[in-house]
Amino acid sequence: MLGSILIFLVVLSILVLAHEAGHFIAAKKAGVKVEEFGFGIPPRLFGIKIGKTLYSLNLLPFGGFVKLYGENDEESIGDSKQAFLNKNKRTRISILLSGVIMNFILAIVAFAVVYSFAGIPKETKNVKILEIASGSPAQVGGLLVGDIVRVVDKEKVDSMDKFIDLVEGKKGKKVVLEIERVRGEEKVNKKFTLYSRENPPQGEGPLGVTISSTEIYYPFIVVRPFVGIYYGFKEAVFWGKMVIDGFIKIFRELFGGHVPQDLSGPVGIFAITSQVSKIGILALINFIGILSVNLAILNVLPFPALDGGRLLFIGLESIFGRKILPKVESAIHTVGMVILLMLLLAITARDIQRLVVAGSIARFIESVLK
């Protein structure tokens, strides 16, 4: 269990530090003074000052933060060119968005690593049998894992959808499959007559087979990282759309007076991280990519205390032609942070309740006592 906790802290730290590193790099490039780049959450244990920036190690060993000069107090900075608030709107927007961009870059890199080592999925016209359920028509009829389905009832099959439609259309009847079977370097064509079940067991399907029309290929090692980045970008965009759809669903449920069921807090994420880490390092890296996309989109939401909330104030500044008083903005962000913390506590309480019901908390306590 200690190992799971350490893995969780490392994952969380990678996500947050990547985000804060984005702010740090953009601020330095824009000439904004970075007062502190901290690892962990204060109180501070010790720090080293390099140039004008204090690099600190803090008591709670996860996450991090960047403190920019003149981020909240306009009165004490005067007309300093190194102050965040004295920079033009475009510069401030780029600094705020840099954390989000860095999280997307982290996601792309994570997915690229997975694709580079696990291979690139490629769609083919070969509908291959991956699994066969015990006692199913497929097993009784003599089909084997690795068989490629070419024809179903005299109709050529070149996609999963076509196979499923043909088999579903024959429920309760006999169906003739023509398959290609590979024996060493020899290919053999065979015919099988099976019974397509009308009411199959849950999760099995009429024939009891798991199929796929994708194959894994490994590009030449020199170009593999570049191919991995390309597919990593596509994967990040895919998860970005999924996360946005998820947030839209959550807001609809909230405005409809329902409690969202798909939210998870730190306890829920810890439980998932613990399970994913048991699968393997590539699964964990892939999960980091998914979490990084979530963090990026969460931070760009126009809510006080988040980067999106600060971007909203810059938008209001453009509309009204003047800055919102820094003290007022800071107070609103503080209230927003309190609301976020209360929401986090509520989600955490529900996560714990779920784990108690599932028996996971009991197993957790038992493992700690051991």
Folded structure, characterized:
It is elongated and about 85 Å long. The chain has 10 helices and 8 strands. A hairpin with a 2-residue loop joins strand 6 and strand 7. The chain has 2 domains: 2-118 and 230-369, no CATH class; 120-217, Pdz3 Domain (Roll). The chain has helices at 2-30, 89-118, 137-141, 160-168, 224-255, 266-279, 281-299, 307-320, 326-358, 360-369, and strands spanning 34-50, 53-68, 120-132, 148-152, 155-156, 174-183, 186-195, 209-217. Strands 3, 4, 5, 6, 7 and 8 form a 6-stranded antiparallel β-sheet that branches. A two-stranded antiparallel sheet has the order 1-2. By secondary structure, it is an alpha+beta fold.
